[in-house]
Amino acid sequence: MKEFDDISPFIPYNGGFFISRGIGTHPDRIMDSHELIFVTSGILKMYEESQQFEVPAGGSLLLFPGKRHGGLEQYSNDLKFYWFHFNIADRRGEQILTSLPQCSRSASPEKITVWFRQLLSNQDITESSPVCSGLILTLILSKIAETTDNNHILPLQVAVKAHDYIKLNFSSQISTSDVANHLQCNPDYLGRVFKQAYGMPLTEHLNACRIAHARKLLLESTLNISQTAEESGFNDMAYFRRKFKKIIGITPAAYRKQYGKIHINTE
Predict the structure, then answer these.
(1) Which side of the chain, N or C, has fewer Cβ within a 10 Å radius?
(2) Average pLDDT score, the chain
(3) Across 20-102, where does the E strand assignment appear?
(4) What is the pLDDT of residues 123-151, one digit of tens each?
(5) How far apart are CA 37 and CA 116, in angstroms?
């Protein structure tokens, strides 16, 4: 009814639920509406203008109209998120958005997920009034503004930076202390937040990167086992053999013998 048209402080447009297949990235674009993203699984890495964001599960990101945004890297296999486009209808909407951190993690992710489902369900009902969608969206944005748990964001950013640093530098024989020094944080703290974010110790991720590289060298190069270990970031042959067998199930020499097909040309 017309007398209810001004109840919602927001003008809802459309939304959806994104499930990654591990390919593609968020498009680079400039929109004429606000976009709210709420991640339910994985980590979404995006930028808006000069700012970069790493949005974890339970985290939200608000993108603004007239500003260029896009993905920082390819979608991960486990990434899932809700998204919704909207604009501000009046001053109440402006006040809500003013109190909303652009990137934050909610202390009530389950409740926000339920409301997003209702929002998308309401969108599919042709006879539904946009006022309903606007009010549900208001609930979501108000809850994000009220229950932001920002203490989770900084540790997650530290863990992600450590993860990316290891992927680039694992062959340099770096240690947990080296990674912590690079990020200017305590090694014990780094170990805790990394395991919290990725479900494994930092050293386990470091060794996994090194063993993956060693497997590649064993199959594609003529380096001997000792050289392969060194090129992969191991300075202890016994430790390399032990870790390789633990992760792959056989020794490096057996792996090369079983799977390697190296052709050496002498002319």
Answers:
(1) C
(2) 85
(3) 29-30, 34-41, 44-48, 51-55, 59-63, 68-71, 80-88
(4) 877 555 677 888 899 889 888 877 554 44
(5) 10
Please give the model's pTM, rounded to 2 decimal places.
0.56
Q: Per-residue pLDDT for 258 more than 70?
A: yes
Q: Does an H or E element contain 104, and which? A: strand 103-105
CA triple 171-173-177, angle to 5 deg = 125
Interhelix angle 237-248/202-220, rounded to 10 degrees, is: 90
What is the per-residue pLDDT for 126? Answer: 59
Cα 220 → chain centroid: 32
Q: Which among 262, 228, 221 is positioned nearest to 248, based on CA atoms?
A: 228
Exposed (0-12), middle (13-18) or buried (19+): which is 183, by Cβ within 10 Å? middle
Asked whether residue 1 carries a pLDDT value surpassing 50, the answer given is no
Distance CA 44, CA 76 (A): 8
Length of the chain: 267
- Residue listed under structure tokens 């947990």: 176
SS3 45: strand
